[in-house]
């Protein structure tokens, strides 16, 4: 069983930055991939960033809408995955969810709200 807990959301002005954290109850080295999704009001949940380990390599992929602005990273010592979000825009407003796959099963956090507004 894996539990994922997000934190770091809040209100930020356009152009600002936030860093989201996702703390896992287990060893994140065994959770693969680990992803960040978001869901804006009235829209479907979408994949924002993915972190996959293949062999000894760690690979990141991003949605076109956030590439160059968002960075996903892992700290295995802290069992935490981060999403650094820069140059935030109002269209980034959403609930952000951490997701991980362990033993073939999907696990989700409860989400953290990010609001980008002046």
Describe the structure.
With 118 residues, this protein is mostly beta strands. It is 0% helix and 55% strand. The radius of gyration is 14 Å and the shape is globular. The N and C termini lie far apart (40 Å).
Could you list some keywords that capture this structure?
11 strands; 55% strand; mainly beta; 7-stranded mixed β-sheet; 0% helix; 118 residues; globular
Number of separate helices: 0
- pLDDT averaged residue by residue: 95
Quaternary structure state of the chains depicted: single chain
Instruction: Characterize the overall form.
Output: globular
End-to-end distance, in Å?
40 Å
- Can you summarize the main beta sheet? 7 strands, mixed
Fraction in helix = under 10%
Which regions contain 5 or more consecutive residues with pLDDT less than 50? none
Strand tally is 11
User: If you compute it from the alpha carbons, what radius of gyration comes out, rounded to the nearest whole angstrom?
Assistant: 14 Å
Content of β-strand: over 45%
Structural category: mainly beta
Order of helices and strands, N to C? EEEEEEEEEEE
């Amino acid at each position: 069983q894996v539990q994922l807990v997000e934190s770091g959301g809040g209100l930020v002005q356009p152009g600002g930055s936030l860093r989201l954290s996702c703390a896992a109850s287990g060893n994140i080295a065994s959770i693969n991939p680990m992803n960040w999704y978001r869901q804006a009001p009235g829209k479907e949940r979408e994949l924002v960033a993915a972190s996959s380990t293949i062999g000894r390599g760690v690979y990141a992929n991003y949605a076109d809408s956030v590439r160059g602005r968002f960075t996903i990273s892992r700290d295995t010592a802290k069992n935490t995955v981060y999403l650094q979000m820069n140059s935030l825009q109002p269209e980034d407003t959403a609930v952000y969810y951490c997701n991980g796959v362990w033993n073939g099963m999907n696990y989700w956090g409860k989400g953290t709200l990010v609001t980008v507004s002046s």
